Amino acid sequence: MKPYLFLLLCCACFSAFAQTTPDSTYPPNFTMENVEFKSVGVSIAGTIFKPKHIYAAVILVHGSGQEIRMVKMASFLAENGIAVLTYDKRGVGKSGGVYAGPEVGTNNIDSSNLTLLALDASAASNTLLAHLPAVHGPLGLMGFSQAGWVIPIAAKTNRNVNFMVLFSGPVVTTLEQLRFQFYTNGNSKFWETHTEAEAREHIRNDADKYKFIGTDPNDVLTKLSIPGLWIFGGKDIQIPVGLSIEHLNTLKALGKPYEYQLFPDLGHNTASSKSQETLKAAIKWIKSINGHVKPQ
């Protein structure tokens, strides 16, 4: 049985950053502190990375799958003046609770589970703030893939969140995303034989293979007023990038402070440890908004 195949495919793309010790190549110009915090009745375990000079702070929010804390990425961000809290996903590693996902035959893009994961990210935000000095720059949520649905919910829940950064985060409903992924069927050469128009036609008309209430990130994004940056790969076969960009442009036309950057030669894994181009772009953007963000 392989229910909700998307959830498994999406998580593996960013696993290169899931490790428990920092890379030895990083000089020790930041401190690390293991922490635990409570969220919806369970204890979540994580690590805070605190640089000597803090320009901003972020919570790392997982993609789908059984994801532990992302130490390598947190180290890279801390080296660039960004304080980080990264944690083991609910029900994974040293965190309590129950993991929902395809490996155990459950649906982890059900709206109730996305909301639960958003509450974990919100609780992590409060924990990181409590460990930062009085002057620390803006606090944001940075996440991957599935986090495209989780982060907007968390930002709306927690008014301490000042910005969002999403790598390959879908700006379509969960059901639309599944229609697209079943259409591409993991074919890395999909875009060599299909057009954007064909993909959109399929997304509009394909019958849903699973029946559950979909989550539309646009419902929340229309209500938020904080800056957001989406980073996409032009060859993504997991999420419909063209449609996501169209929705972002609609939101921008309404005055929302949302931006996106498209890397035409990249696929879904826009935060690859092999290439730091997209990470550097995200860091540059975060530092550019420092001092220009307003409380929600």
Automatic annotation (TrEMBL):
Q: Which residues form the signal peptide?
A: 1-18
Q: Which UniProt keywords apply?
A: Hydrolase, Signal
Q: Where is the Serine aminopeptidase S33 domain?
A: 55-173
A Gene Ontology molecular function term for this protein is: carboxylic ester hydrolase activity
Q: Which PANTHER family match?
A: ESTERASE ESTD
The identity of this protein, by name, is Alpha/beta hydrolase
- What lineage is this protein's organism placed in? Bacteria, Pseudomonadati, Bacteroidota, Sphingobacteriia, Sphingobacteriales
